[in-house]
Amino acid sequence: MHNVVIVGGGPAGIRAASILVEAGLKPILVNETKQAGGQGYRAPAKSLALDIKALMGSEAGKYQRLHTLFASLQERIDYRPGTLVWGTHEKVLHTLCDGVAGTIPYDALILATGATDRIMPLPGWTLPGVFTLGGAQVILKDQGCLIGNRVVFLGSSPLLFLAALQYHKSGASVAAVVDTTPLSAKRAAIRDLAASPRTLARGMLYRTALHMAGIPIIDGAAPLGIDGTDHVEGVRIKDRRGRERFIACDAVAYGYGLKPETQLAELAGARFQFDPDFRLWLPETDADGRAGADLYLAGDGAAIGGADAAEASGALAAYALLADTGRPQPESALAPLRKEIERLRRFQRGLAKAFAWPVEQAAALSDETIVCRCEAVTVGEIRAAVRAPLGPREVNRVKAVTRCGMGRCQGRFCGPALQEIVAGTCNAPIAQAGRLRVQAPVKPIPLHAAAELEP
Amino acid sequence: MTTKTRVVVVGGGLIGTWTALFLIKRGLKVTLIEKGVVGAQSSGTNFGNLRLQGRHPGQYPLSLRSQAIWEEIEELIGDRCEFEKTGHLYIAVNDAEQEKLEQHARVAESHGLVIERVGRDELHRRWPWLGETPQAATYSARDATANPRLVSVAVARAAQRLGVEVIENTRVTEVSRNGSGFAVKTEIGRVLECDAVVNSAGAWALEIAETFGETAPMFAAGPPQFVTEPLPYRVTPSIQAVDGSAIFRQIPRGNVIFAGYPRTAADHVLNRAPVPPVKTLNGMRSLMKIAPFLKSAQVIRVWSGIEGYLPDMLPVIGESEVAPGLYHAFGFCGHGFQVGPGVAAVLADLIVDGRTDTPIGIFSINRFKNAVQVSDKLAREFDMPASSNSRAG
Predict the structure, then answer these.
(1) Whether residue A127 is found in the same domain as residue A243
(2) At residue B68, does pLDDT exceed 80?
(3) Is residue B300 less than 8 Å (CB to CB) from chain A?
(4) In CATH, what number is assigned to the domain containing residue A372?
(5) Is position A47 within any domain?
(6) How far is CA B316 from CA A354, B225, B374, B380, in A?
(7) Which residues of chain A are within 8 Å of residue B276 when distances are taken between CB atoms?
(8) Is residue A294 part of a domain?
(9) pLDDT at residue A455 greater than cutoff 70
């Protein structure tokens, strides 16, 4: 019996499952959250009276289609919600469900693990009331809560406008949307962005809607810090004319786009290469998502592409798996999918320029700024370690010496900034700073999880 | 480019860095060459125990000499490296283990170490967080811990300040005879002419030994280790179950660090030291049994290291039998951290004085000319056949 396991219950994972089911397989679909749909199309908790149509806006149709597809699969897949995959070794997944450790052996594995927020430290970013952009959205969709009453959306990301609009519609007062990338960079990226005119138009629509609602949109500002004594009180920025401004608020949604969650891919044997456009280390795959023997990657967990690309790449990964196990698929089904992904990922490269990762902000950070919030390691400690005699110049060694990236999140959030700070301090290209290696558990697991296991 | 120096130390781990420091303090010009960066391999990834209890009987003079150096680390290198005299609690869960503790204690006492016997009631009174299973323990107050991630780098810096040339990210490609001394060639074509070579290249040390026709049946392995999130500081001593199923300590910032047997085969060529998740889970269960209050603690990180092991579980220390002036110190079988500075002091004695007062005869590489007695630890502490993991190529 061919044991196929899909990790991730978002658009990529669900679509991959549907292709495998059509081919007569019964895959296991493991989903970390209780609700399917991934982060973007996450179904709200059943107890919430949330108007999902209003929340999803123009994407409500796609949301509905994905959840209908998922519902139709329920009887034909082995669905494991609320199950964290914390490691994989020799073709066995190690799981945690309801506090109990378990295993799932596999013959072939599709990883559709999605993405998480990409964060650049800023003075005050660890104050209560500061949330990542994605986190602010999840709190709204998953629990029907707002992160505050008067919220500033800060950073640079297409999600900035979407999340601000969702908050506005849900009754929050949006104090301002501050995009750190200047409009000129957006105009320069227009050629790549034209690869997906519909998405481009939608983004402009969000912006217009915010503008119509009287919400200030500030482009090309440099964030100076988030102020407050024991809670957020406001955001300090320098606008593009060089004027310092203070925007009072009680919460900040902060982020610079997304980064793939590649921990399991690494543990399963994927290789990585540095992508200069995204300034991220991404897993190497072929056009259909093959990343190694019996290993397939799909969705934002392979490369940021958005929900549509995730669905297409989930289908492609499933087709590749079927072909590799002796069930050849018609080229006619594959070519349009490949083209679609190519187009959508080109669009994402445009987005990476239009909503830029703030390299210069890393260099400008004050020494007191915390980089690693788990271990409270500051920029100054990292710079001092690197500059010391025999100081480390590679992030894993910097981690060993400073503890940056050694805590609960294992560098998932501080890793990209750590790379910038190390490279900047050494005056070396970013790729030379390397990337933090992964070990299982990819997320914390409690000791008692092992209590029931046979030694 | 050819330069002259007195001693070339190959391998910038704990042994190599301390040796460089002691040699320059005794007036010798020293060059330290490290293929990667200083202190990154097992010297920097080990558990951090400076354990005196339960050592091999023949190792006590060396271990005690080493502990005296550890106790002066701050004066010697200007950095404490989180050295703490935590004490070491050695725990038995049955009569057979208790008997074993007693044997260990007698050996340690014969070398002047103070060992306290702790019965069940006192054990639970002094360390009330212990679970039900421990029935007796021995306690040694002189045992200590330090932070391995910091030590080798700090020692290398101290050596550098005194004038040791430290060359990182450079492989030694050839060591050859040059008159009565040696010529050491590096991958960038530099040649160092010297009187003596210290082979402290850890799991990679056979490359140099075999150049001169000497070898040892060394294989690479590492213990599974993990650390929890920070918790309130409660566990002051370093704790070890006699059967090796749980070795743990808590650092003052709160994290609990764990190691436990069996060890896992490592690959020194591919530079890999895996931690199979099953071993993490086994360790979690063992830890929970001895310290039930940790049951809700979250494990946040695991790691291992690439350590050289020999079948009699003793290191190779001493001058080469076939190439006078070449000094070996490798294969520390997972217990090199405590003994490292002492080994370095011995090497400095041998190189400067031609002799040492610390007995090291049993560590000679010569012993592998005949069949050595395989340690019973090999069956207990490893789950792979040692022979199949012997160094390949």
Answers:
(1) yes
(2) yes
(3) yes
(4) 1.10.10
(5) yes
(6) 60, 25, 15, 22
(7) 89-90
(8) yes
(9) no
Contacts of A401 in chain B (CB under 8 A): 149-150, 153
Radius of gyration of chain B (CA): 21
Give the closest residue to A198 by CA, choosing from A58, A354, A312.
A58
Interval A314-361: pLDDT, tens: 999 999 999 999 988 888 889 999 999 999 988 999 999 999 999 999
Contact B288 A408 (CB under 8 A): no
Integer-rounded Cα radius of gyration of chain A: 22
> Alpha-carbon distance A103 to A93, whole Å?
5
Q: Report how many domains make up chain B.
A: 2
CA separation for the pair A399, A410 (Å, rounded): 10
Range 398-437 of A in CB contact (< 8 A) with B? 400-401, 406-408, 410
**Residue A1 in this model has a pLDDT that exceeds 60:** no
Please give the Cα distance from B188 to B165 (Å, whole number).
16
- Is A313 domain-assigned? yes
Q: Which of A90, A408, A449 sits opposite B300 (nearest CB)?
A: A408
Same domain, B21 and B97: no
Question: Is A100 an 8 Å CB contact of chain B?
Answer: no
Point out the domain boundary residue: B306, B332, B366. B306
Residues A409 and A418: their CA atoms lie apart, in Å, by 14
Q: How many domains does chain A have?
A: 3
In angstroms, what separates the C-alpha of B276 from chain A's closest C-alpha? 6
Residues of chain B contacting A372 with CB distance shorter than 8 Å: none
pLDDT, average across residues B273-294: 95
Residue B276 sits in the same domain as residue B325: no
Q: Give how far Cα A367 sits from Cα of A224, A356, A364, A384, B42, Å.
A: 14, 23, 9, 9, 32
A240 alpha carbon, distance to own chain's centre: 28
pLDDT given for residue A454 in this prediction: 64
CB distance A446–B295 less than 8 Å? yes
Domain C-terminal end among A256, A273, A307: A256
Domain for residue B73, yes or no? no
Domain identity same for A289 and A171: no
Interface probe for B, chosen from A86, A95, A447 (most Cβ of B below 10 Å), is A447
Range of the domain at A104: 4-116+259-351
Q: Between β-strands A258-260 and A280-283, what pairing exists: parallel, antiparallel or unpaired?
A: unpaired
- Of A92, A407, A451, nearest to B285 by CB-CB distance is A451
3-state secondary structure of B240: strand
* Sequence-separated (6 or more) residues with CB below 8 Å from residue A65: none
- Label each residue of A7-52 as H, E or C: ECCCHHHHHHHHHHHHCCCCCEEECCCCCCCCCCCCCCCCCCCCCH
H or E element at residue B248: strand B247-250
**Helix residue spans in B233-276 (DSSP H):** none
If asked whether residues B159 and B94 sit together in one domain, one would say no
Q: pLDDT of B180-222, one tens digit each?
A: 999 999 999 999 999 999 999 999 999 999 999 999 999 999 9
Q: In a 3-state reduction of DSSP, which class is residue A111?
A: strand
Q: Does A388 touch chain B (CB under 8 A)?
A: yes
Q: What is the pLDDT of residue B160?
A: 98
Q: Are A145 and A229 part of one and the same domain?
A: yes
Query: Residue B319's domain spans which residues?
Result: 2-48+149-218+310-389
Q: Out of A9-18, A337-346, B329-338, which region has the weakest mean confidence (pLDDT)?
A: A337-346
Contact B274/A101, CB-based, under 8 Å?
A: no
The reply to whether A144 and A271 lie within a common domain is no
Contacts with B282 from chain A: Cβ below 8 Å: 450, 455
Alpha-carbon gap: B347 to the closest alpha carbon of chain A (Å): 24
Query: Taking CB atoms and an 8 Å limit, are A390 and B157 in contact across chains?
Result: yes
Task: Verify that B160 and B250 share a domain, yes or no.
Answer: no
Cβ-nearest to A448 among B274, B295, B301: B295
CB contact under 8 A, B275 and A439: yes
The answer to the question of residue A22 being in a domain is yes
